[in-house]
Amino acid sequence: MKKYFQDKTAIVTGAASGIGRELAVQLLQQGAIVFATDVNLAGLEALLAEQTSAGSRLQIARLDVTDRVACETLIQGVRQQRGRLDFMFNNAGICIFGEVKNMTPDQWDRIIDINLRGVVHGTDIAYKIMCEQRSGHIINTASGAGLMPIPLMTAYCTTKHAVVGLSTSLREEAKRYNVKVSAICPGIISTSIVNATESHDFDMQKMHAASPVKEVPVTDAVKIILKGVAGNKSTIVFPRDVKLSTKAYSIMPDVYSLLAQLGLGALLKQK
């Protein structure tokens, strides 16, 4: 796997915490040159301070992925500095949990702007560069929620289904230009996203503490992701429970719906 990333240039969005931060760390361990971006500059500076051994192989920059001009400036700047762009990890994202009837228009705009439009910006700009150089790999962070319906996560599922559709469809177009595209579709990862999840309806900390779902440690998750990227997988789905759930939904949608309703009823009783 190290051979795949050694001396390659990678941009990672949402790199101040969670999956994005660990992607930056493990890419550096694999010998890549990493440009870590996020709106959270303090988080990026903490990453830089901790990765002193990386030297100039790690560079940081504040980036709001909803700003097309800023994305263009950063991505083109990396290309000019490095002469090429090998990996574009469109990872930045947010989560909103709760009933759709309680969501505000501002929440809809924000989750679509970050989770979808931000991914579109990064994908579109990087793809044009990669088509010219006839190589490169775009990796978009979707979710297991992008492969099946999950009540109370409708807005999140909306954006992640779109990211899966973008990634898998573009993958077929991109083959003629020798460009690769992958979608990451994980389950629950042990990151700080629970603390950042918005909800009008639920105490997310309480729900998280009571959840029987086993989280995947973020270090293990990123190892799986990078192995899938090196293997040029179309969709990188994990862990086993997400694989089984998505399979059950595709084969027995009515049974899946019944179980979803039971789960929804139980969650609504916790309000």
Tell me the series of helices and strands, N- to C-terminal.
Answer: HEHEHEHEHEHEEHHEHEHH
Level of helix content?
40-55%
Q: Tell me how many strands there are.
A: 9
Low-confidence stretches: none
CATH architecture annotation? 3-Layer(aba) Sandwich
Quickly give the structural class. alpha/beta
What name does the CATH topology carry? Rossmann fold
What is the count of DSSP helices, taking H or I runs of 4+ residues?
Answer: 11
Shape: globular
**Average pLDDT level:** 93
Count of discrete domains? 1
Quickly name the level 1 CATH class.
Alpha Beta
What share of residues are in beta strands? 5-15%
Q: Numbering strands along the chain, what is their spatial order in the largest sheet?
A: 3-2-1-4-5-6-9
Q: Oligomeric status of the shown chains?
A: single chain
The major sheet is characterized as: 7 strands, parallel
Give the termini distance in whole angstroms. 46 Å
Rg over alpha carbons: 18 Å
Task: Explain this structure.
This protein is of the alpha/beta class and 271 residues long. The chain has one domain: NAD(P)-binding Rossmann-like Domain (Rossmann fold). It is 53% helix and 14% strand. The chain is built from 11 helices and 9 strands. The chain has helices at 2-5, 18-29, 41-50, 68-82, 105-133, 154-174, 193-196, 204-210, 218-230, 240-251, 253-269; strands at residues 9-12, 33-38, 58-62, 87-90, 137-141, 180-186, 189-190, 216-217, 235-238. The strands form 2 sheets. Strands 3-2-1-4-5-6-9 form a 7-stranded parallel sheet, sandwiched between helices. The protein has a two-stranded parallel ribbon with strand order 7-8. Helix 10 (240-251) crosses helix 11 (253-269). The longest helix has 29 residues, at 105-133. It is globular. The N and C termini lie far apart (46 Å).
